[in-house]
Automatic annotation (TrEMBL):
<protein>
    <submittedName>
        <fullName>Stage IV sporulation protein B</fullName>
        <ecNumber>3.4.21.116</ecNumber>
    </submittedName>
</protein>
<keyword id="KW-0732">Signal</keyword>
<dbReference type="InterPro" id="IPR036034">
    <property type="entry name" value="PDZ_sf"/>
</dbReference>
<dbReference type="GO" id="GO:0016787">
    <property type="term" value="F:hydrolase activity"/>
</dbReference>
<dbReference type="Pfam" id="PF05580">
    <property type="entry name" value="Peptidase_S55"/>
</dbReference>
<dbReference type="InterPro" id="IPR008763">
    <property type="entry name" value="Peptidase_S55"/>
</dbReference>
<keyword id="KW-0378">Hydrolase</keyword>
<feature type="domain" description="Peptidase S55">
    <location>
        <begin position="96"/>
        <end position="318"/>
    </location>
</feature>
<feature type="signal peptide">
    <location>
        <begin position="1"/>
        <end position="27"/>
    </location>
</feature>
Length: 318
């Protein structure tokens, strides 16, 4: 009887231990596909804003960051809605200024047409795809949040899309002057995925193409305590849509962040260092997935910062 009871208790203890360990074990076994493709990002906003200062015929100004709230007294959310409302000889626009004051202006149809090129109802950008989860078909990119350059804050959005971008030209980085990728994005091309979240560690969403067509294989995520100073590799695209591997040196590890220097002479000769648009580029070490590029050091463009993948995944939507 005592032996039976002892065996039962041992079984229960083992069962409880396995249950407690299973989430960690699952995390250890987690594998993601490292990407590196340059992507175009499009966020559709629930409002229209003024992208540049515009002088109106009556001497008043539409200021950058102003938001058009109503047309002829009716709420408006898109430029298409604005165009559809331009049927009368005059239209009335209710404007919310950056100071939160509102005012109303009246324009003729011709005047309204003239300001259309200065209005936007979406935020666009360029970044790098970090990973795809082959099981959930979710992706992560950028490694940092999208901040609209006019609104100076993360924009509200109703829908979002990512598209493949092709690098046509490089503006090289130099000390004090960040370089950038000059890309072509075809919004009429196949959408790669939606955008469900724009968080501090990047954008996340659902990958909408066949994961089996991706040639790279999933690899294990490196735990933060496994990351070592020394040689690693960076995956990114600098010509067309081809992803290449470049050598880097991890020079500092602090909590969930790391600093690195580009040591690959081929990359340095072509880009001068880190470029705007490289954010999200995967970093690998010893065959494992370490993290994603987030920032460059403006005065030292060969030097960059990255977030560990385990930290990036903490903000991934459930």
């Amino acid at each position: 009887m005592k032996c039976h009871l002892r065996n039962l208790l041992t079984y229960l203890v083992l069962t409880i231990a396995l249950a407690l360990l299973s989430p960690s074990a699952a995390a250890e076994a987690k594998k993601l596909i490292p990407m590196g493709e340059s992507i175009g990002i499009q966020l559709e906003l629930p409002f229209i804003y003024v992208a540049h200062d515009v002088l109106l015929p009556n001497g008043q100004w539409l200021k950058k960051g102003d938001i058009i709230k109503e047309v002829n007294g009716k709420p408006i959310q898109s430029i298409e809605m604005l165009k559809e409302s331009m049927t009368d000889s005059e239209i009335s626009l209710t404007i919310k200024q950056s100071t939160n004051h509102t005012r109303t202006i009246t324009l003729t149809n011709d005047q309204a047409n003239n300001i259309l090129p200065f209005l936007k109802d979406e935020t666009d950008g360029i970044g790098t795809l970090t990973f795809i989860d082959p099981e959930s078909k979710e992706y992560g990119a950028l490694g940092h949040q999208i901040i609209d350059g006019v609104l100076n804050k993360p924009p509200e959005f109703t829908d979002g899309s990512i598209f493949l971008a092709s690098i046509e030209q490089i503006k090289k980085s130099s000390p004090g002057n960040p370089g950038y990728k000059i890309s072509v994005i075809n919004h009429d091309d196949i959408r790669l995925g939606n955008i469900s979240s724009n968080d501090i560690y990047g954008i996340f969403g659902n990958w909408e193409l066949d994961v089996k067509e991706i040639m790279r294989k999933p690899i294990e995520i490196m735990h933060d305590d496994e990351i070592q100073l020394g040689k690693a590799e960076l995956l990114t695209a600098i010509e067309g849509s081809k992803v290449e591997s470049f050598t880097i040196e991890i020079v500092k590890i602090e909590d969930n962040y790391l600093q690195f220097e580009i040591t690959d002479q081929n990359l340095l000769s072509k880009t001068g260092g880190i470029l705007q648009g490289m954010s999200g580029s995967p970093i690998l070490q010893n065959g494992k997935f370490v993290g994603a590029v987030t920032h460059m050091f403006v005065e030292q463009p060969a030097r960059g910062a990255a977030i560990t993948l385990s930290e990036m995944l903490k903000k991934k939507p459930n």
